[in-house]
Amino acid sequence: MSMLEINDLHARVEARPILNGLSLSVAAGEVHAIMGPNGSGKSTLAGVLAGRPGYEITGGQAHFEGADLLAMAPEERAQAGLFLGFQYPIEIPGVNNAYLLRAGLNAGRRVRGEPELDAADFLLRVREKMSLMRMDPSFLSRAVNEGFSGGEKKRNEILQMLVLEPKLAILDEIDSGLDIDALKIVADGVNAARGPDRAIVIVTHYQRLLNYVEPDRVHVLAGGRIVRSGGKELAEALEARGYDWVLEASDAA
Amino acid sequence: MSAEPVLSHYQAQYRALAPELPGRELAWLVSRRQGALARLLREGWPSNRHEAWKYAPLRLLTGREFHPVITPPPVAPQALAAAALPALTGPRLVFVNGRYDAGLSAPDAAEAGVSVQPLAEALAEAPERIAELLEADPGADAEAFGALNTAFMADGACIRVAAGVQARQPISLVFLTAPAPVRQMICPRVLLDLEAGAGAQVVVHHAGIGGTGERSHLVDLLVQGALAEGAELSLLRLQEEDDQALSLAQLRLRQGAASRCTAADYALGGRFARTELTAELAGVDAAATVTGMLLPQHRQHMELLTTMDHAAPATLSTQQVKAVADGHGRGVFNGLVRVRPDAQRIDARQNSANLLLSPSAEIDARPQLEIYADDVRCTHGATVGQLDESALFYLRARGLPLAAARSLLIYAFLAELLPSALPALGERVDARLRGELPVPEGLA
């Protein structure tokens, strides 16, 4: 059974249909890349899966480990092991990073019946991941994303993923706005998260992150549907020939 | 019930009580009480036509008869321990239903040069100084509820700090209220007397301690602070009255040259709670910093009215007020900045930020400027918003349940107004916001 199974999903924002019969299957241990031009529905897909308010599901299903994902509250999805890496991480003045991370981590542990981590165990765990993300420990006591540069915000998203250890990570344009050094750090973080029990879905416009994180499957999203799927060579072909080539081919089909 | 029978009720109450009120042997005080009562009887109650009372549910105050308290119920030390803020180790006066409770108090913890006395004791010991303090601030009982306090003040505190003395320990005044068989009226009077260069921190804490009986009592507090040249006062008031109680407070500060006052008012309890805070910046270079927090929930109505009266040149006032209204709660902030003629080089800043959590809640935030000088820098801003939906989703996407995410964001919104030196206050605010859940420990 797939970890994530999406079937003929339709969704709209206000009256505008964005997803139009999207189907996708992602198994544990796999890294999938979902690519597509602007406006193809990539971020909507990520938002719908994580439970972001503002979307109306008009048809289809999404199951996460067999459970009806679309019936769950955002926090239930997170507690069950789904992680969304935000394209635009939110600044939350007054709430510090360490608190958010530990509260999120312990919310999941409570649901799984595991003991909560105390402050010392938590710090031990988070420090190691911070060094991987080349983040100074002082970030922990700063307010969530407040005053962070674009690159720091994206690294913070990956740090959260590494600490929360989700089963399924959906990374929405995690590579946008990064210089080459930050891109490599983010890629290192994603690669460190790869494992036989974890699935990762990378939503991106560009192929360049995929030079560092090799995907098992690549899908092209256009007009709210997946119009083509293939291996990593599909991403390379997109980089060389642009999206028009795939879109024309799918129109012809 | 029309207002007049209620007024004659107070006249009768005064006649009956006068022989028992403290200072009954002091002719000037008796005359002041009688004058205040006569003014109240003559001028009557304020009405909603008065700008300062525009939104207030006045019928709760003026349409009912309240009874001045003579004999409060005994309160066990455990009840005090449960209600009082921990970690306040300095001198403490405790009042039960407005009457001084010597058994629960610890006035002797005061340092040299610092005197902390119940009002009756101070009246007996230094009546001249008390007379001076009252005479110097005729505005205190010019209006109805100040007059009511003067007529019926039965207890309270007098805190004096000698010239140049810095009181290191905070001084706390704890007003506990327990329900009574009748609807009580509690009129504490607090006098703060800081001589030149003196410094003190004063914490005024009102707490309802539950029990059976009539819970809709009226607390009519009047605090008068005199800061001589270079004095520094930190005055913090936490109001956690019973949710049926009516809580009025006037905090009046007169500041001499180069004095500093930091006043903070936190309103959590009460059916109707209103604080009027006035700082008269009467000496050059005086500065007042005001913090206000109002958390009206359910059917609570809370008001904060401030007057920053810049009467001398080069004076500074800074105000930061936040209200969070939920349920059918209503919050009112009315901030007046007055700059008198010839009070040049003034800096007055006022900021009011507010959160509305429910469609039935309401917040009215109004800055008012009366400026009669020209070298003045005044800034003011007021915002009313809702919880940031994107921040709420972000927290939920990390696994925080909706209720926890909401209260975390509300707490974070308020956190900058909470003094780090008194973490217990943050705990009370948090408990109010989220009920039984524990305090978030990780605020930046």
Written overview of the protein:
The complex is a heterodimer of chains A (253) and B (444). In chain A, 37% of the residues lie in helices and 28% in strands. In chain A, strands 6-9-10-3-11-12 form a six-stranded mixed β-sheet, sandwiched between helices. Chain A has a four-stranded antiparallel β-sheet with strand order 2-1-4-5, covered by helices on one side. In chain A, strands 7-8 form a two-stranded antiparallel ribbon. Chain A has eight helices and twelve strands. Chain A has 253 residues and is an alpha/beta fold. With 444 residues, chain B is of the alpha/beta class. Chain B folds into two domains: 281 residues, no CATH class; 55 residues, no CATH class. Helix content of chain B is 23%, strand content 37%. In chain B, the strands form two sheets. In chain B, strands 1, 4, 5, 7, 8, 10, 12, 14, 16, 18 and 20 form an eleven-stranded mixed β-sheet that branches. Chain B has a ten-stranded mixed β-sheet with strand order 3-2-6-9-11-13-15-17-19-21, with no helix packed on it. In chain B, α8 crosses α9 and α9 runs antiparallel to α10. Chains A and B meet through α2, β7, α3 and β8 of A and α8 and α9 of B.
Content of β-strand of chain B: 35-45%
Provide the CATH superfamily of chain A.
Answer: P-loop containing nucleotide triphosphate hydrolases
What's the total count of β strands of chain A?
12
Topology-level CATH name of chain A: Rossmann fold
Total domain units of chain A? 1
Number of domains of chain B: 2
Shape of chain B: globular
Structural class of chain A: alpha/beta
End-to-end Cα distance of chain B, whole Å, is 52 Å
Q: Give the overall pLDDT of chain B as a whole number.
A: 92
List the total number of helices of chain B: 10
Radius of gyration of chain A: 18 Å
Give the CA-CA distance, first to last residue of chain A. Answer: 29 Å
Shape assignment of chain A: globular
The number of helical runs of chain A is 8
Q: Enumerate the spans of chain A where pLDDT stays under 50 for 5 or more consecutive residues.
A: none
